[in-house]
Design goal:
Blueprint: E1 9-10, E2 18-19, E3 31-35, H1 36-47, H2 52-59, H3 63-83, E4 86-90, E5 96-97, H4 100-103
Parallel strand pairs: 1-5, 3-4
Antiparallel strand pairs: 2-4
């Protein structure tokens, strides 16, 4: 049985939670779920250009764990784009959300 997932520090919560190709019915599509920590990893690495060590520190994870989270996230996004699937962003209630003071220097994106 796998271990329980440790909560990560998530500093960004998007207003939009579903993306799908235009002109296709959601009922007929496979939906891939992107977890909140995976979105945060993409935001830090690809959006803000942070090094893995700094991004891992911001999320409260090890560098290796951050790398695994980012790899899973990028794989899901690639699968969605290549296969024309829908992407749903899951807000996991076990995540710790940052307050504005802790996130102030990262608010560029």
């Amino acid at each position: 049985m796998p271990r329980n997932k440790c909560p990560r520090r998530i500093c960004h919560s998007p207003d939009i939670h579903l993306f799908k190709p235009a002109g296709k019915s959601l009922r007929l599509m496979e939906v891939v779920v992107l977890e909140a920590d995976e979105l945060e990893a993409i935001r830090f690495a690809d959006g803000l250009g942070l090094y893995h060590q700094e991004a891992a520190k911001q999320m409260g994870a090890s560098r290796q764990t951050f790398g695994r989270i980012l790899e899973q996230a990028q794989s899901k996004v690639a699968k969605v784009l290549i296969n024309g699937m829908a992407l749903r962003i899951n807000k996991n209630h076990t995540e710790k959300f940052c307050n504005q003071e802790n996130n102030q220097h990262l608010e560029q994106i």
